[in-house]
Amino acid sequence: MSAITLTAFTGEQPRVIPRLLPNTAAQSAYDVRLDDGALTPTRKSVQITALGSSAYKTIYRHQGEWLAWDNVVDAVPGPVADDRLYYTGDGAPKIRASGNTYGLTVPRPTAAPVATASGTGAGDIVTRVYVYTWVTSFGEESEPSDASNAMDWQPGQTVTLSGFSAVPGDRAITSQRIYRSQTGQSGTYFYFIAERNASSADFVDNVAVDAFQEALPSADWNAPVDTLVGLTAMPNGMMAAFSGRDLYFCEPFQPHAWPEKYALRTDYDIVGLGAIGTALIIMTTGNPYLATGSSPDTMQMVKLEANWPCINQRGIVDLGTVIAYPSNEGLVAAYADGSINLVSGNLFNRDDWLALSPSTIVAGQMSGRYVMFYDTKDYAGNVVAGALSIDISGTPFIVRTAERATAVFYEIESGALYFLRHGESNVYRLDAPEGPRNMMYWESKEFVLSAPENFGAILVDALFELTGDEQQNIDSEIATIIAANDALIAAGPIGGEMNGAPLNTYLHAGDMLTPLPTATGGSQVAGSGSTGTLNVVVKAGGKQVANVTRTGKAARLVGGFKSRSWSVAVSGDVRIDRIALAKSMDELRSLPA
Q1: What was the pLDDT predicted at 234?
Q2: pTM for this predicted structure
Q3: Which residue from 316, 482, 545, 561 has the highest number of Cβ atoms inside 10 Å of its Cβ?
Q4: CA 236 to CA 219: how far, in whole Å?
């Protein structure tokens, strides 16, 4: 083997072990990244909005408005109208429409109507029974009332209905529908005869015998149970949710109706749900399940033979073609065909995974990758916190950042992952396109040769130039940091004074001020013409043998020794397209451009 080429870094396993690191300023300056294509720095988070509290556990943006809850809430847009948002987890299930919030349940009429015939009739005697329903301004229809008394009617008579219950005042109920029994070849059923403004006043039925219309649709509907959680949208107007071990489905395109006849039951308590097309992954405290079907009445559920319980609802992420969730053994990926894999096996052993406290992580997605924010303590009581972005689509790899979050929201329209930063009431976008470059750190796998060799030359191809937008982003960031630091200084103290903070709160000679971004040589980036920084470390036998900053041209490495194992580590904030090691300059020249 005469040369090692890490061109575009494709397929290289990251040698960096995702071990826990103290949450210090030094750590927060770096991320760990191995990317498909070029090795490219992530971008810094950019503040999007401010909320009222730093204690929210759920954030959500609906039609441009930011919503937040103190509880773990599952919110999904409705299948009926764009302005409606349905959610569970904040008490009983709710609907939000046009800025107003209501309980999802449409109250069922509490009193049966009383039917009374008057006048003289002639002809066949027909037994009639009546029910009625409430209808909201959103077109939602309640379950029917109890049936009225059965009464005999003859043509020529008039029927008066009385005893209607009072109109509920907290569910935007605007209408009342009245149904009458009708007997046909297939039996007796209730059919629509009239709709009026919601009222408890008497109603006179003078509708012709053959003037009835559609059948009562809500006869076997049920209101959602108050303990319903885990709301998940599915195709064909369906929604799924659960309570304990019971799995529920709404009536198609009727998210307020959850018929008990569709309910399924698992052997273990359900933790969360994830939909992939018409397949529903059900994660429990025991085995996961798979339910499939195109409508609620066709859903079939099977237990998956995998002993990987879900240990954290907030760690469940829908990645499109796969549902990822945390178990005690590692990160699990479940697919629509029922296959299920432990996808973190090449990245973590069990102890390293559990050290991240996966039962407390907050997870989301970005660019098809699983992003998990962890915040825990090591054996010595030191805070260890940050975020890992895990790619599970091919060869698994990790991107590490030091951001901490208490709530996340993924917006599919923009592909943005928003998070509520730990200890703040501000929402940021992770790896924001308009953000300046982060510093990154990456280390290749260890290349083990068949015999000891000495590599005497290296070539690093990198792109240093900043675009106009990038320079503007940096200038904007610096202006923001200066303004924030000025405010801290004015409010004082800033923790850097003598005895201004407990020991080890800040790095040596540090304080609570945010440092300005720096580039090569430590010069401030704004207005300096600097374009970034890069450092490449070559290791042989696990020990550093060279430190390279020259790019675009071949550079010589130290000689006088040989080693069987070689690796390369990179730190910087510029894009790197290739790193090539060779025994000589001639070998480097022979590599393809």
Answers
A1: 95
A2: 0.80
A3: 316
A4: 21
- Other CB atoms within a 10 A radius of the CB of residue 551 amount to 19
The two tokens of residue 344 are 């973190």
C-alpha torsion angle, residues 511, 517, 521, 527 (rounded to 10): -130
Alpha helices in 265-407 (DSSP H): 350-355
Contacts of 345 (CB under 8 A, 6+ apart): 330
511: left (phi over 0), alpha (psi -120 to 50) or beta: beta
- 175-234 tens-digit pLDDT: 999 999 998 777 889 999 999 999 999 999 988 888 788 999 999 999 999 999 999 999
Residue 154 lies in a domain: yes
Contacts of 533 (CB under 8 A, 6+ apart): 439, 518, 519, 520, 572, 573, 574
Domain that holds residue 565: 1-26+437-464+532-593
Q: Tell whether 51 and 176 lie within a shared domain.
A: no
Does residue 471 sit in helix, strand or coil?
helix
With residue 167 as reference, give the H or E element that holds it. Answer: none
User: Which whole number is the average pLDDT over 121-146?
Assistant: 94
Strand-pairing partners, residue 414, are none
Cα(74)–Cα(117) distance, integer angstroms:
50
> 298 φ, ψ to 5°?
-110, 5
In angstroms, the CA 55 to CA 58 distance is: 9
How many Cα neighbours within 13 Å face the side chain of 506? 16
Q: Which helix (H) or strand (E) holds 535?
A: strand 534-540
The angle at the Cα of 369, spanning 373 to 48, to the nearest 5 degrees, equals 60
**Domain membership flag for residue 37:** no
Indicate the burial class of 47 (C-beta count within 10 angstroms; 0-12, 13-18, 19 or more): middle
Q: Are 457 and 582 in contact (CB under 8 A)?
A: yes
* Cα distance between residue 148 and residue 145, in whole Å: 9
Q: Is the omega angle on the peptide bond into residue 493 within 30 degrees of 0, that is, cis?
A: yes
Q: For residue 213, is it within any domain?
A: no
CATH number of the CATH domain containing 446: 2.60.120
Helix, strand, coil percentages in the chain from 3-state DSSP, rounded to 5: 10, 40, 50
What are the tens digits of pLDDT across the range 491-547? 878 877 777 777 666 666 677 788 776 543 333 333 334 457 888 999 999 899 999
- DSSP β-ladder status, 439-443 and 30-32: parallel
19: pLDDT strictly greater than 50: no
